[in-house]
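Hey, quick one: can you model this chain's 3D structure?
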Amino acid sequence: HHKQALQFAVRAQDKQAEALALANLSLMGRSQGDHATAKVCIERNLELSTALNDEEASCDAYEQLGLISSNKQEWATASEFLLQALDLSAKQGNFHKSNSIRCKLGFINGTLRMDSHLRTVAKLMGAKPERKRRKSVGGVGQ
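Sure thing. Here's the predicted structure for all 142 residues.
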């Protein structure tokens, strides 16, 4: 039904409805593990939301892009997107959303620093550091 909603919105030239349909398609793609579709849809949603000056929708789009990047273990990219979402949520005065995003950022930033920490610990213990990154269970926001 989300694809049909998108088709109708495009035909009607309703940018707000198009953005909403794209956000829903992105969420559906992410829940099914189709990160490529999820990313394309939410990037277009972000373009539309920005053009419509819809800061709440833009914030949600940045957060979704961060979660998609997290699921793909692209931690630095995830952190950048979530920082943009945090900035927008703070500007809106949405403290609940800001706190939620801060928690996700904490997880991601901890993961970013984990490799360096493990190398330091291994060096102190006289062991060779593990070169291959371990996969985390799930990702942020699953």
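One thing worth noting: The chain has six helices and no strands.
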